[in-house]
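note to self: dont lose this again. the chain is below, predicted strucutre after it. 344 aa total, dont forget to put it in the shared folder this time
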Amino acid sequence: MRFSFWSFVKQQWERQPPVFKADLTGKTVLVLGANTGIGFEATKHFATMNPGRLILACRSQSKGQAALEKLEADTGYAKAELWIIDLANFESVQQFADKFKRDGGWLDIFVANAAIGTSKYEPTENGWESSLQVNHLSITLLALLLLPSMIKTSREHATLPRLVVVSSGAHYWIEIEKPVVENPEIVKTVGSAEYCTSGTAMRNRYVLTKLFNVFFVRALNARLPSSTPLIVNTVSPGYCYSELRRNFSGILAVVDFLMERALAFSAEVGSRRLVWAALAQQDHPEKLRGQYISNFDIKEVSDFVLSPQGAKAEDLVWEDTLDILNKVDPRVNEIVAKYLTATA
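---
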């Protein structure tokens, strides 16, 4: 599918439906990046549906606490929990997953929303370019470490959990260069200082990581046995007012300022799409398995993703990501071996 600029404008001007509602009594909901923007607004919507547990996963204790207080003030829901996680630190991700397992490990809805946008190469303490680690590697690591909890929940409570990874319609506007796709260490290549500081690599970094989110969901779903009671999908919130672009400067900041006023949704409107991906199609949830969701509907992914080169890139990103993450935490390969199957 091709997605032109005018298609983008038309979609942004369409009337948006109200938030999808469901009864979440007894369910556990986890939202990453829950203290601000679409993450916080999605959390507010979930809070109105009486979840048994609602976990706000945030990097900052002070901002997370402020979000808890605002959530209660706005919705009356007083049972929300604040859990701290720093996606720029693999150890923090592991500690979060370990705490979740010790805590009982029931998980019905996991919205992996957190992301950063930067045009400057800045490595994390783990040595990875920061947005690649936060937007792709750490989200993938956390999703895989929590996978057993979601499957356990489904089998012990006869439910159908959902993992929703927030990607972006911007994935339509990027392709990975053929020389990079020919390299088996594709993630290591695009994460290297040499690659990041050459040409327009960092200017396109956010878009590339969102493409990787689409790859991850498709690759994971392809390897989940059809009998596994788990729905994995990815969703675009659309173009919203967001702190994600707060570091823009110069002409880019001016252009974004003007585009926001002409086209952007509020964060609340964008969050409705996250909620839809997590709750919609209650009678036919299998329809959402492995799908890319935008504008409250299943959409075809980009032509590049569907191309032979895109399929090759998807497999390489999956394999290289697993190799990287298994060195961080050997449980990754154990989980893959136990719960997933090889593709043809």
